[in-house]
Amino acid sequence: MNDQEAYAAAQDALLAWGVTAKPRLIKNRENIVFQACGPNGEKAALRLHRPGYQSNDAIRSELWWSEALVAGGMHVPQSIRTLNGDVLATSGPRVASLLTWLEGEPLGEGDIPLAMNAGQQELLHEALGRELARLHTVSDAMEMPAGFTREAMDIDALLGEQPSWGRFWENPSLSADEAALLLEARAQVRGVIEAHAKGGDWGLIHGDALRENILVQGGSIRLIDFDDGAFGFRMYELGVAMAQNWDQPNCAALGRALLYGYGAERALPDNAPKLLDAFMLMRGLSSCGWVIGRYDDDHPAVRQYAERALAITRRWLA
Fold it and tell me: By percentage, how much of the chain surpasses pLDDT 70?
């Protein structure tokens, strides 16, 4: 859907909330996201969900989850109901949801060094660790309604023959030797994750705590975009949060700060630093598969994700 089509779909969807004001496009990617007015003139975020990615039941479950998190004392976006009391509307092939707007600036962008000084970076990662721990604690205390459904990012979904995000070793930009290297990493990291799974912390996770989904306001951290929320390993959550730091010179310090913040709120496994590296690698491998089919085989992004996975793999295997 191009931008012009997205605008038309957004304005059509907003009628379900009684809104006629034109929205402002923020991003046209997996979900198409607009800044919009809510039914009472408040600032809101309109999402046009990617067809076939999440079922309507899964989206409704995400929106119920966000309301439960707010009830548990967290600051996350929650749904604004349509004029007929629903949390979803339709516009052509897209399902739409309207969410409360959270103020703040994204922590950063992928592949761009963080803008703040090293000390501030560590403080923000410590705060992020605390916020992710609170997310897990509040989520564990919820009583989920009948029919609640989100994907389970278990070992097979991460590393099986048909991973949820794609067979990363078949990224079309990989040479035979490079593909073999990723398969070696897959076998070794699977052993680490299988050992962790025997007693590791498991439950609902945000699943996509990347810089653009982390808002900073003062020294506070707030999470947005729960579209990839799933049942998963809590250490995978932290690995995702570190995935865009892999090439920063202070990567190790940021990892320590993240673990320190999390551990201040919630128990960590004894081998947390080793697991953090393993799950950071896991995210790099998954992203190498995610890009397959989303871009043409010769698109620069396909190779970019492959090179990132290879670099993290070589470091981890070493």
Answer: 100
